[in-house]
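Budget justification note: compute hours in this period were largely spent on complex prediction jobs such as the one shown. Inputs:
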Amino acid sequence: MSRRLRVDWPSCQARGLCHELLPELVELDEWGYPIVGGEVTEELVADARAAVRACPRLALRLV
Amino acid sequence: MTQQAPAWAASPRHLASRPVSTRPASPVPVPHEVCIHPGPALLEGVADGPSLAAHRKRYGDLPTTRLPHLLQLVRGAGLRGRGGAAFPFATKLETASKRRRPVVVVNLSEGEPASAKDSALALSRPHLVLDGATAAAQALGSREVHLVVTGERPLVRQSMERALEERAGDVAVRLHTAAPRFVAGQARAVIELLSGRPNLPVTAWSPEAIEGLRGRPTLLSNAETWAHVGLLVLRGEGAYRRHGTETEPGTALLSLTTPGEEPHVLEVPYGTRLREVLPEAAHGLPALVGGFHGSWATWPTLANARISVPHLAALGTPLGAGVLLVPDAETCPVELTSRIVAFLAGQSAGRCGPCHNGLPALAAAVHDVATGRGGAERAGQLAELVRGRGACAHPDGTVRLVRSLLGTLPHEVAEHVSGGCAHLRAAVAS
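Corresponding output:
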């Protein structure tokens, strides 16, 4: 089953921790908001979970 | 029937940074008057007036409808949602029926200023809309039916209030007033309003038909969709199929809007040629199909196109909620797009970062294009950046408009970049 990261946009306040923890999948736009890449591969699931847990706005989900 | 204080009266914190008065006005104001043309089905004999007596005389009493029959009717007719997304109504109805105590919502908020078709139904056929919602509520065993109108269109509200009074004793319908904002009519924003929270979009983790108002399955549809449901229940599938094509039965409402003039609402069978619908004066000119969130189409495209959901989608100009914005020969499409994008940027709820930051930047880039200062490349980049990054489709719709301008009318855009547009030169001279 393929998994992706989804952002709860109204909650996100561009704190940028997701990019720090998961630069492979999360870039930041010119205002600091995440640009989430494609599928979360097996190798990246642990890091993706860490990013979800670390978000201070609880705005990231693995779905 | 009860009335709630409008949720936007509470003035939530996040809106404080962008006061209402500084938001750019719509280049097409919300209409006060609508010119309603008689049509073959929904708008048949509109001269009868909107009363319940006239409605019952024409259509008869609303029969009791059970779920399997209703499902069969809407599936047989291939009914799609008329709010813009064209989602199959039968799928939504079936999904909502699978969990306990579904809620029925009639969305008559019509947040797009260029649209007038829901207003036309409210003013001329309110009971067809209410019959559709009532039939679904009965079939689903719903105890709650909600009707959402907008404070921006007071005559619509009055007409629906009058219609609800006439039906006293029928299924209880609660009337709500949406905020005067483009995104207030978005499905999740409407559910927020009904929940007593600010009338703004939030992230949907699952479809409303699975989990909507207070976690209940919620069957939320546009007023025109409900009118079609009403017509199917009252007249049956055979009568419904007398119009339209084999694969796309029935009719669709169109709002034909020229900036500066009152909108015309027409009902046309699917399969009708667009050139038969567009006024003679618009022949030869580009038009915006689908309204503010729509796409520009050149005259050669329009001249050969037909009113059909899959056909128009394949042409890259989805019908959306049925708005055809037809600028006259004096109006420059680039300039008009710039004003629409500025308006849409101001209509962002400001909650989602990419939309809050990206749409004003996009509006500035398109303004640069329209005033001959370049900006087309930046507009294209921003459009790519903003798309798909919000709780609702507002950024996506705005991006669709900008990309269609750049992609469909490159000649007009190039004229602006070189300062050669006749409209632009006139503006500079004056």
